[in-house]
Amino acid sequence: MTSASVPTIFAENRRLARAVRSARRRLNDAAATYLIDEMADDMVERLSFVRHQPRAALMIGDCPRSLAVYLEQDGAMLAVNRTANPAEPLAGGPYDFIGVIGQLDAVNDLPGALIHLRNALTPGGLVIASFIGGQSLPALRAAMMAAEPDRPAARLHPMVDARAAPSLLQRAGWKDPVVDTHTLAVRYSSLGRLVGDLRDQGLGNALAKPAAPLGKAALARARAAFTARAEADGKVTETFEIVTLTGRRSLAGT
């Protein structure tokens, strides 16, 4: 898409700000990392399964230690850029592997980002990108609707529907594209704990036009709606859909 035709849903400065805030929050050992760790562990399993041991790899977003150890085997080169904008051409390549954890959930031009990722690969190079998808956070969505039942504001990101992803990969020219999903269920004692965990992991609001903070009454309604979903032990189960895109650049380098 041309820049004029891409709708502005997210603000790049807000995407960067949430990444920086996430890094600062995770200096505290109590900060949540389970979604990042899940994506990283899954990425290692996929790389091992296809027996892909990169010689020059780029990680966009977080790169937990377990993933870094795998990518740096036998002296391989690893570059980590936690704030790279995947919707712009990527510097420093070409790479024979690019991994992306998060980030693609908050870019305006997702087809363009997929093209830039492909272009930064060596011929035959591999991309694995994981992010939370459109079936995520049903409990939080319900709580936000209950908070403002008459005029709900946009408070959660529009998320990628995994069913649309295969056509996006084909349009971007990925070779052997694969899209799959799995779910992760996490239990929370409060709405505040869920929101805090999202911020810890860089999943806060990056909307270009964020809504004003909830007022006291609306926040009380949100908390009550969330608590009403609690099970016998007082905890609420929230669901995350993790979408993973896998593909290669052709051997011809196209």
Provide a descriptive summary of the structure in words:
This protein is α/β, with parallel strands linked by helices and about 250 residues long. The chain has a domain at about 10-135 and about 155-185 and about 200-210 and about 240-250: Rossmann fold. Helices cover about 35% and strands about 20% of the residues. The chain has helices at about 10-25, 35-50, 65-70, 110-120, 140-145, 165-170, 190-200, 215-225, and strands at about 55-60, 75-80, 95-100, 120-130, 175-190, 235-250. It has a six-stranded mixed sheet, sandwiched between helices. Strand 1, helix 3 (about 65-70) and strand 2 form a beta-alpha-beta unit. Helix 5 runs antiparallel to helix 8. The model has no long low-confidence stretch (mean pLDDT about 90).
The total strand number stands at 6
Question: Numbering strands along the chain, what is their spatial order in the largest sheet?
Answer: 2-1-3-4-6-5
**Based on CA inertia axes, which overall geometry fits?**
globular
**Roughly what percent helix?**
25-40%
Q: Which regions contain 5 or more consecutive residues with pLDDT less than 50?
A: none
Per CATH, the class of the domain at 12-134 and 157-183 and 198-208 and 241-248 reads Alpha Beta
Helix/strand structural class: alpha/beta
